[in-house]
Structures are given as C-alpha cells and as structure tokens.
Automatic annotation (TrEMBL):
It comes from Cellulomonas aerilata. It catalyses: a 4-O-methyl-thymidine in DNA + L-cysteinyl-[protein] = a thymidine in DNA + S-methyl-L-cysteinyl-[protein]; a 6-O-methyl-2'-deoxyguanosine in DNA + L-cysteinyl-[protein] = S-methyl-L-cysteinyl-[protein] + a 2'-deoxyguanosine in DNA. The lineage of its organism: Bacteria, Bacillati, Actinomycetota, Actinomycetes, Micrococcales. This is Putative methylated-DNA:protein-cysteine methyltransferase. GO terms for biological process: DNA repair; methylation. Keywords: DNA damage, DNA repair, Methyltransferase, Transferase. Pfam families: DNA_binding_1 (PF01035). One of its GO terms (molecular function) is methylated-DNA-[protein]-cysteine S-methyltransferase activity. Residues 96-176 form the Methylated-DNA-[protein]-cysteine S-methyltransferase DNA binding domain.
C-alpha cells in the first residue's frame, strides 16, 4: 500500500464549502463533507490514518491530476451538471449491507428522492429500515454518495450529519420536490445496534442468536 500523503482540498459547492480527502495513487475519495478540514480529517478511516494529509490550495490543484479530476467534478456539479459526482470513485469501510445501501444511494438520480424504506429494499433487505438509516448516518463520503436524497416517509427531511440547512440546499440545487423539516439536528453516526442487526438478519432469512 502506498505511503504517500493523502490529498485534501476545499471546493465551493451549492451547500457551502466541500472538503474532501482522497488517495492520490488512485483518485478514490475516502472522506468528504461540509465541515472544516480538521473535522473531515478526523473521520479518515483507521486503515489510512497512519498516512499524512497534505492540503492542496485551489491554485495548486492542477499539480495533482487525480485530485484535479475530483475537483472539476465538484465544480461541474455546482454549475448545474448534476450527474458529475457519479463518476468520482469512492470507498469506505462497511459490511455487505452498508456497501449495497451506499451503492443504492448513488443510483438515486439527482432531482429524485427515496425513503429509508425504499433504500432498504434497494439494498436487498426490505425489512432493514433502521439499518438503512444507519447507512446514511455512517456515510463518510457525502455528497459523492448522496445520502441527502434519502428522506422519511411523507417527504420529511429526517436527519443529516451536516445539518438540515445543507441537506435542503443540496436538494434545492438538484430540483427535488419541496420537502418539510422534521427535526433540525444532525444525524449521529453510530454502530449497528442489536435492532439493526435483527433487521438485517430477518431480511436475509437468517436467525438472530438469542
């Protein structure tokens, strides 16, 4: 595995400044968000935490081809090319259900939304609605994996790690139907609890140990 520094930068986006970190050898975004650099770096997966992080100023992005590709995608998205983020490679740790849920989120077109119930079904476990919510809360690479497009039944916003103002701004930029506000608080990333595990096991036809 490469020991080269991870590359980070900040790019203006419709909901505020977007900071992200990628591995320069493959251009894969590993963590991203509408937070200061220190907060984004703190969420780098443990498998990469030993590598240094180099912040690249906007005027120097062209010196790093893989970083420039991701930056240009964010700029195109901000300018109205709403599918521009879809081709940016991402990777984050998580078990099979979470990987399927994150892939299902990327399949929701800009301007459309899905409920947590629909996300669970799209991820292959229709009964795992709580686990679908956990997949949104644990998403490290928003908005490249667009968990902001997942709402509560009835069009209520639900939660969002970076706050509902950011979620609303992204949906408005994408032309999604008008949405209501359920609670003005960020979603909390959390491990899968016993109820989530039971949801996934039941959806998979597996027994849950007593």
């Amino acid at each position: 595995m490469s020991t080269a520094p991870l590359l980070a930068t900040t790019v203006p986006a419709p909901a505020g400044d977007l900071t992200f970190v990628l591995t320069p050898e493959d251009g894969v975004v590993r963590v991203a968000g509408f937070s200061p650099l220190t907060d984004v770096v703190a969420r780098i997966p443990a498998t990469l935490s030993a590598r240094d992080v180099e912040f690249v100023a906007p005027e120097d992005v062209a010196d790093h081809p893989t970083l420039e590709t991701a930056v240009r995608a964010v700029q195109r998205y901000a300018a109205g090319d709403l599918g521009a983020l879809d081709a940016v490679p991402v990777e984050q740790p998580g078990g099979p259900f979470f990987q399927q849920a994150w892939a299902a989120m990327r399949a929701i077109p800009a301007g459309r939304t899905a409920t947590y119930t629909e996300l669970a079904a799209a991820a292959g476990s229709p009964l795992a609605v709580r686990a679908a919510g956990s997949a949104c809360a644990r998403n490290l690479v928003a908005p490249f994996v667009p968990c902001h497009r997942v709402l509560r039944t009835g069009g209520l916003l639900g939660g969002y790690y970076f706050g509902l103002d950011v979620k609303r701004a992204l949906l408005t930029h994408e032309g999604a139907p008008e949405v209501a506000v359920l609670a003005d608080r960020p979603a909390e990333a959390r491990p899968v609890d016993a109820a989530d595990a039971a949801d996934v096991a039941a959806a998979s036809g597996l027994g849950v140990p007593a």
